[in-house]
Amino acid sequence: MTDSPSIPRILDSDHGRAVLATLPPPETFSGRTALAREVCRAFGFSDAAGAWRLSSCLAALRDMEAAGRLRLPPPGPGSGVSRRPCVLARPVPAAVSVPPRVDGVRGLRLQLVETPEEARILATLLSCEHPQGAAQHAGRQVRYLIGSDHGWLGGFVFASPSSALGPRDRWIGWSDAERAAGLGRVVGMSRFLIREDVRCRNLASKALGLCLRRVGADFAGRYGLAPVLAESFAGPEYDGTSLRAAGWTYVGESSGRGRRAEAGRRVPPKSIWMRPLAAGWREELGVAGRGSPPPAPPSRVLGPGEGLDMASWAENEFGGGPFGRALTKRLVKSVRIQSSAPSKTFFTAAHGDGAAVSGYYRMMERPDDSAFTPEAILSAHRERTRRRLRGAKTALLIEDGSDLNFATRRGCKGPGVISRNKSSSGTLGIHMHSTFAVNGEGIPLGVPRIEFDCPDGVADAGKPPDERKSARWLRGWRDSSRLAASLPGARVVSVMDREGDVAALFAERQAGGGADLLVRAKHDRVLPEGGKLFERLRGSPALADHEVRVDRASARREARGQKGFAGREARLAQAQLRWREIEIPVPRKERLHLGSTPIRLNAVHVFEANPPERSVPVDWLLLTTLPVADRHEAASVLDLYSLRWRIEDWHRILKFGCDVEKIALSTAVRVKRAVAINAVIAWRLAALTLMGSDTPELSALAMFDEAEIAMLLD
Fold first, then answer.
1. DSSP string of 26-43, one letter each residue
2. Which pTM does this prediction carry?
């Protein structure tokens, strides 16, 4: 007799196939169940109660047939395990008058599912109300309904665990042999449902606690063997609050393959949670060593617009900063006041609140070497941005630089020289190099990084590499790569305009991995096979026609040291599309630490041959590490790059909506603090404006107050 749940591995081994070959031909059996019964006898596949493990054996045999390793008898009527559990003809009636707290629930009980009617009730609840729906589980399982005098409140399904799960196995610390022997003592919580319309505080943790206290005994009563450890999975939108309250431990994330997913198809990784059901569970499992310590649990994924209402957004985006309680409270209050009138001075926005004004200026005028830095101010918002990025299938981290002109702020100490010409001593200002995060639909998700610089006005020639302008792009991409490492379910792409065309950046990405790159080419490089990059792409035959979305760009007024821009209207450009794989050489000065292997990239060229009158034609040559094997992938690259203009919109809101170039603080250090605050205010306005265009039926007053609406309409 064996209770090992690894039936598929046993049957598909050399020994297993040899034993299967000694059985009578499949056509001699009356059906698949009869064959499965014979296989169970041959291998001793029985549970602790002595019952044959027919469901698990049938599932393994069907998988082997699908892989072409054996042939089964034709399925008979009603044979096999149905993928669709039997459900009721109509939904389960809603629970009525459920109190807001669990201690007020009348008749709360956990009911073991034993009858067909109870099974149909649970299957109907899961089919209609659980995000993953209902599933017909093979093998051992125990199911429960959460009942009360108010009606059915939810349910549970416990079934076989995953046969191999890296984070779980490392946390337990067992060897392959120990896992094979002990996996039968682990049970998987496959489904846990609290009905969506039931709003009852602490109900989830209470029901889970009741369930965990009896599931071991119920399994032992049904199968003759009590589990000592439970496992469960949670999606990225869940932070595990009720699981932690019931004593579960987060041990890592799944690989994204999915037990029920099609072969080769990836699914979003899920967090893995474990819960001991017995005090001496390691001894019960026969584990000799101790496992690895658990990692920190993940934070819940945030939706793009979650928590951005006027009443709570400032607390959400700034309240988790690394400051003391008093300073954090002052920061949140100041942000709330400033965001009510973004284009006004803080004094005007405060409407005569002397205490608020005094507190704001004391906060901004803290010593230059204090911990109140732009990075610290943005830290809570950065974490919220990361949580929003975790919910995106495609995450674009758009880099760009912008100069803040303080030529009229001669009394401000510390600005650098942002531009210089022969007849000028230079324009004073601060350079801001930022990363702006958007999802694949172009909805802004946050500003995870801003690097401020007060340039000295001296050309880069002769400066160390880390002090050159190109180093800003490298630092930004490295930070994006660190973010990408914490976003296992997302495709993270670092998007840059022509200033980001730095060969060292591509070489570093090729040598060590990191976020994907999508950069508009600036340099017409000589290719190893001869010829130049632009000539090679432009001279090749067009492979497809494509419509390119050109976003609207607002006019920009001329200012000292900055050119004006007439703006452009949104349009669809009819363009020619070309793509090919290229190699570019590693710069000589980088070869010592990056090697001399040529950098392999994909190039996508789009050209508008007949633009509208007085319009600048679309002529982009893009270099990317993304795959470009066909027209669909080339068009996808273009669509992603077209979202780069989101950062330009944010710059416009920051400069002209929030008027940051008119901040009247006395030093550049203080100005940077104020700009960091306004950067998040401008991001919120940009995000809500775009979400409003996607959901025009949503009232503007749900997210904006009247002053913000007036500013956006101006």
1. GGGSSSHHHHHHHHHHHH
2. 0.71
